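Convert to structure. Protein one:
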Amino acid sequence: GPGTDNSNDMGPLVTKPHFEKVKAYVDSGVQEGATLVVDGRGVKVAGHEEGYFLGACLFDNVKPGMKIYQEEIFGPVLGVVRVKTLQEAMQLINDHEYGNGTCIFTRDGEAARYFTDHIQVGMVGVNVPLPVPVAYHSFGGWKRSLFGDLHAYGPDAVRFYTKRKTITQRWPSAGVREGAVFSFPSSR
């Protein structure tokens, strides 16, 4: 079906309740005064008119108090929040209760380094629109965007299925002939 068709840009949302939830977020953004620049609510896929398809939705002039800013939306919805400075943008991001992913688009290496060093988010992109790394790197958000103790991919996923053992060793040259010693070797 269209969810597995490689010629499609995006498949349907997973269930009707999820489709209705994401559509309600779009409706809420409009009601709260954000500018809906691209409206994907009317998308129909030929032969699958009853499917749970929602096209891309792009908001401009989103404000921090709006529901579409405050909550994570797992659907094709993007909001633009306008700020005047990098510091103001970073403060908004760091103050947010979620910390899944964020991006910076710049030609200024110093700004990119400052952003990546000081932003409090789990996945950070520089000049990439979606900061999800390849699977062998750790993946996941910070703050309330992380579910559980471990990340979904990378070393944490391997650790989840691995029984690890730590061995600390010391091989004194004299062995048992050294006698009883009750201090660390570095203290002697």
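Protein two, convert as well:
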Amino acid sequence: MTTAAPIHLAGERLMLDPMGALFWPEQRLLAVSDLHLEKGSSFARRGMLLPPWDTHATIDRLTLLLRRWSPRTVVALGDSFHDAFGSARLPATEVSRLNAMTGAHRFIWVQGNHDPTPPAGLGGEWIASFEAGPMVFRHQAIAAADAGEVVGHHHPKATVPARSGSVCRPCFVFDGRRLMMPAFGAYTGGLDVRDAAINRLFPRGGRVFLLGRDRLFSFDISWGSAMRAG
């Protein structure tokens, strides 16, 4: 049984899913970040061969989330494709799967730094940021933003002690004003939560929600190790 963790941001109750997604019940809105589709094929073009199944695996996981939450709106928080030509390299079967999603839901593609132009041949809306009620969904955080900002970009991860040594996993970072999403893509790396690039966005500290198999593990941000996670 999967257990989501509730938080409150800008007066709204949100649910953090252990798969690395956000669900906003009142709006029936599901958000994911940093899918980096076709990262494997991008690396292959540069001579670095990876198994070419990352897009299929990521879309499989997104399909499970859509079944679990039945959202009305889906927001992909930028870097949905690993590069500006990623959508053109999608296998036809994955194009069909994504277009089935964009046909069944209002699908918002938020612009990221890896994918600054609209994805070719896919449905959905392509915008710089998305606002709903008191919330704003964008790829990169704005330091002086009002409360209610949901962002991605940094791929936060945290390392915690475990019986066998330590465990490093993607995580959410939350301080009551801003929520940073973990990367959702199969081939995405990560940045430690205590790195300066993340830490400056949470100057008063915050909580980490580490992704587990069926639940999230919450602890103060200072618990995470200071190492970078690959």
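The longest strand covers residues 165-174. The chain has one domain: 5-223.
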